[in-house]
Amino acid sequence: EYMGTPHSHSMKALILVGGFGTRLRPLTFSMPKPTVPFANKAIVMHQIEALAAIGVTEVVLAVNYQPEKMMEALAEYEAKLGIRISTSLEPYPLGTAGPLKLAESLLRDGDPFFVLNSDVICNFPFAAMLEFHRSHGREGTIAVTKVDDPSKYGVVVSREGGQIDRFVEKPTTFVGDRINAGLYILSPGVLDRIRPDTPTSIEKEVFPFMAADGQLFSIDLPGYWMDIGQPPDYLKGQTMFLAAAADAALATGPNITGKVLIHPTAVVSPDAVIGPDVVIGPDCVVEAGARISRSALFARSRVRAHALVRGTIIGWASSIGRWARVDSGTVLGEDVHVGDEVYVNGASVCPNKSIKDNIPAPTIVM
User: Could you tell me the pTM of the whole model?
Assistant: First the structure.
């Protein structure tokens, strides 16, 4: 089989997007999960930019619903990055391995390809992964990350040098503290291990067999890692992202504490106190005396005078009234308006709602 030189043709990546992003509702009622902003950039763009930077020229998004809205959003990035972005539409959900088989004709050009879980945010050390994958010469490389409590996860047990020995699902005794980080490099031979048209889990039905054959290696992910697929983890991931961000990109000023990212088009009163761990999106307005910490404001949202916003995600074009208090775990969908002096504690509010009465305990507002 003709393998060619390493860069004789385009490097490709498959991003597993899957379904509607129910875990990130109510934000995903307005747009598909990969295009929801994270640190003022579509979630998936963090991945695509890092892929483009190491020479990937084609990215395929594996989806199981019709993604016109998403493709419109991604068309501008294609032009900007000079990279081809296409979708592979599953006729029905195919798990985490099925989509690879579906995109087989595209991925089978002899070169290794990247596979990513679309909810993962980290430093994306793709160049190091690729170098390691080429150095061991086997079928697969998995990035792994260290966690404090491995019992909640599937643990990856590797030997010296990275060869994966086995996977232990939710271990009751300590076997290791490295978990699958959802970033892989696979050689095309892996595609022979996947049945066509069958929902298949790459973690449970492909990787263990590759490991048993000595064909799977792990590489430690340096730095932070977070699966931001649900709101509390989204904000944890935002804190980690800001901690790792270059100071030059962050806001400074007497009213800013800690790490804060403010879009250049946002208007923030010098009398508003912002931070730590806040992202303010395009065309947002924050009025005098407002206090915001550990929160994300999406485009065109407004926090009025003297409002307190903590641990909250404020969706597009939403507003928080004067002297209102919006507290930890609150997620407001698009076009939600919290009245003056209203207290909202941990509510998840669907789009196009007005909140005129206090919500003292976590609830879902349809």
Answer: 0.88
